[in-house]
Amino acid sequence: DTFGMISDANKPDKWVYSTCGYCGVGCGLYIGVKNGKAVYTKGDPKHDVNMGTLCPKGLSEHQMINSSNRILAPLIKCNGKLQKSSWEKVFTTVSDSFKKIQKEHGNKAVAVIGTGQLLTEEFYTLGKFVQLGLGTNNYDGNTTLCMASAVMGYKQSLGSDGPVASYEDFQHADTIFLIGANIADNHPILTLHINKNKKANKKVIVIDPRASKTSQMADLYIPINPRTDLALYNGLAYIVIEQGWENEGYIKANTNGYKELKKHLQDYPPQEVANITGIDVKTLYELAREFVSQDAVLSAWTMGVNQSFMGTDTVSAIINLHLLTGHIGREGTGPFSITGQCNAMGTRETGFTSSLPGYRNFGDMAALKEYASIVNVPEEIVPTSRGYKYADIIDAIDRGEIKALWITATNPLVSFVNQEKLRKTFAKLDMLVVQDAFLSDTAEVADVVFSAATWGEKEGVYTNSERRCNRTNKAVEPLGDSKSDFDIILEFSKYFEGVNEMLFPSWSKPEDAFTEWKKVSKGQLCDYSGITYELLQEHGGIQWPCNEERPLGTKRLYSADIPFRTPDQKAKFICGDWFPMAEAISGEFPVILNTGRTVEQWHTRTKTKTIAILNDLVPEAWVDVSPKDALKLKVKSGDRMSLSSARGRIDDVIVRVTGSVREGSVFVPFHFNEQLINTLTNDSFCPKSGEPNFKQTAIQLHSKKVPEGLVIQETEISGEIAHKKSAYEGVAFKEKELTISKA
């Protein structure tokens, strides 16, 4: 019984300390092992992150290791079918293909899409091999699908990536703003930290278009119009300045761009923002007053902010408000991005995607020379600019520019937008390599599959949302003929002349990569130089920066002795403009589709779909429909319906009638390949981060109980909204009401 007492038959021989390999919360746990097999998972009661608790995924995590979906040996496609092969055969096949393609089309004709699921040692090793060994900077990760906007927002505002706060700050804040963050479903352990806040006047304010589970724990729930959060935060900043509530001393000492921001905000007076956001003027003033009247204010956000074509500037708008009021660098304060995957932070730190390792900026020649010197490689092989982002890689394949793609531990044939276009694009590749522990949808269409070990079968470190580096230990041996991702990369590098000797001299274990990474990160914001494996296990993780001056790490960034990472050590106010939705609703597609996660499943279910207790809880996707729309469509909970967009249609989705969504909007989880919701989503991306706009897609709903000729149509009812300064200047936006009428 996964959630019951340990039976005598399954009583472990030993308990192995580790860290959960699902989301970015970073829960400490123990893996119970009996006769060489993982049989139990339990939370670590001494761990500061989770205090002994685990969510349903964590409690059943040991079952993932022995999943029937595991790939037990390397595979190669023969006569259209994947067949068991040898490591020598697959390494030879792929290396020969890469060499041929690069000789004919240039080094950058090979691209890599990574993940947020590997260990930091593996990320560092992979990035080093791809960019310095293969010589291609066309390398990005699926963290671009969830965290890239937070990365770029932090960089443009504060000078560097890096979440500024700690989970402990939830306990010390007077007011907590949760923006587009359904942590009760996606990061449930964080609710424990909020509940530990015993301040008498503590207030939790949830800002979200959807009345999610998290909104039910709020003292104040703000049902904002979809994709208007940037306008909201510009409007709150306007009010703060209008009322003279800004912290002038902090602004003068620590920021640049205040005058420019003040001028910019004149386009966001309260009534204008009320029209855009659907939040009345009185409430806007109350929110602004709440922000400035408390000693400690914390703002946390997740995908509701990041997954937007305005994601980066929305992050910076949140940061602007913290800079205006001085709510940063102190206990209980800060703009705090909550990370999606267990080690999305690890890939951000080790670099090679949006930066060189250690948050060194591309184009900074001094930083390039420093890095080359530390790792003893020629400066000319270190890239001076970022390569293609995730979506750019897909477009380059479509153009015929990229001929080979290597995908590690991610499943774009479920997770990426506009699936029909993506599948046609992948068919153009000369070589598709997938490195994964599970037979994903993407692995099934690969030419070659590298069979990887998974959580519990390898060792290294993860870094969670609060910059806490934590230990993951090997509990059992890899299944079958699978290998750790570290070993795969090291062995594959030997098939390229001189690469292994240059990049990985005498490396044989993950700790070799960790030792070099400590040297590379020393002196940087993400300083690991004081961290050891032993310290991590002793203290339940350590938050970077950790060095001689900070031997047990750092709880929060940008306090008095940690300056901003800009040339003049001052943060920058960013002037970002709000725009209407990237894909407007219309008569043909009058409903807004929102997508997201549920606590019982993980990403594209490669890890969770064979775990019975999770699948029994949530076996398939559903569509949340408002009671008013359900009445028009003549559907009730348990019925089936179809959804369509300009890109495709999905059928047979179970209906859940709920007040959690507003009229004219629906919500569908993205985990399920049987109800492939990303068939519908549009390929609109943030121009700064490259993150897709998963959250707003214009769709139509189809019910079997309403004749096919009858569809939900839109009718104008009131209130022109004219936004003065945007690409849509002079265009009137009208509120809509949905009705049934002839198509």
Sheet-strand content, in percent, reads 15-25%
- Rounded to an integer in angstroms, the radius of gyration calculated over CA atoms is 25 Å
Q: Which structural class best describes the helix and strand composition?
A: alpha/beta
Number-wise, the strands total: 28
Helix content: 25-40%
Oligomer: single chain
Q: Look at the structure and give the mean pLDDT.
A: 93
Spatial strand order of the main sheet: 5-4-16-15-14-6-7
Describe the main β-sheet briefly: 7 strands, mixed
What is the overall number of helices? 27
Distance between the termini: 53 Å
Structural summary, described in words:
- The protein has 743 residues and is α/β, with parallel strands linked by helices.
- It contains 27 helices and 28 strands.
- Strands 5-4-16-15-14-6-7 form a 7-stranded mixed sheet, sandwiched between helices. The protein has a 6-stranded mixed β-barrel with strand order 21-25-22-24-23-26. A 5-stranded parallel sheet has the order 10-9-8-12-13.
- Strand 15, helix 21 and strand 16 (448-451) form a beta-alpha-beta unit.
- The chain is globular and about 70 Å long.
- The protein starts with 13 loop residues before the first strand and ends with a strand.
- Residues 709-743 have low confidence and may be disordered.
